[in-house]
Amino acid sequence: MLAIIGGSGLTQLSNMEIERREVVRTPYGEPSGALAFGRVCDEPVVFLARHGYGHTIPPHLVNYRANIWALKQAKATGIVSVASVGGIRADLAPGTLIVPNQIIDYTWGRKSTFFEGGDTPVRHIDFTEPYDETLRHRLLAAIAAAGDSAMDGGVYASTQGPRLETAAEIDRLERDGCDIVGMTGMPEAALARELELPYAAIGVVVNYAAGRSSSAHGIHFDDIELVLQESMVRVRAVLEGLCHV
Length: 245
Ligand code: HPA
Hints:
InterPro entries: MTAP (IPR010044), Nucleoside_phosphorylase_d (IPR000845), Nucleoside_phosphorylase_sf (IPR035994). The protein is of the alpha/beta class. It is 26% helix and 24% strand. It has one domain: Nucleoside phosphorylase domain (Rossmann fold, 3-Layer(aba) Sandwich). It has five helices and eleven strands; from the N terminus they run E-E-E-E-H-E-E-E-H-E-E-H-E-H-E-H. Strands 1, 2, 3, 4, 5, 6, 7, 8, 9, 10 and 11 form an eleven-stranded mixed beta sheet that branches. Residues 84-86, 159, 164-165, 181-183, 206-207, 209 line the site of hypoxanthine.
């Protein structure tokens, strides 16, 4: 059973027949919301809205450990994350879909491991390839099957938020080799790896990153909202097609 973590603009799957909702407690506290179990094109799926169903939990306060733990406990066999991002590279315009293959973590102060103290022996996971290649290719195939297109690969910069970046910060991320920037990729990806859950993400570029647009007035949230709404229709079509690939 695939798990889908929906980000901004995707707090529910309109094409998902929900069979039951389950409030799960974990040793790490409460997940962002109840898990929604159902079917997408007749395949079992569990859905979780990363920021809560009313979009009230900011990126730095998401209980990533509880979310991943709850999905594992629910017997998910893989996680597809949907995340809105800013485009750093010039060709990553709003509306572009991207399936990243690398990540750099700029977050701080987040609970980022299940292995800390107590009776749990320390474990160091291999994280050379942070995203699962098989699941990444399944996502790419589903995007193609939906008649859509996406950038295959790219480096995701995970920033702390909730504020957007300065232009100089984006310049630095670009020098670091980052292509897109978002606030939730980490520690989510690493926690999934710790629990041996294959993890891949579909990034939806909703704005040019700070200082990257020709507009002199910074980033407009009305514009983001519009792109989000349009793009999530496409993302839903992609998720619907996942069971065919
Ligand atoms: N920066 C960080 N996170 C984001 C952005 C951005 O420009 N757009 C959407 N999520």
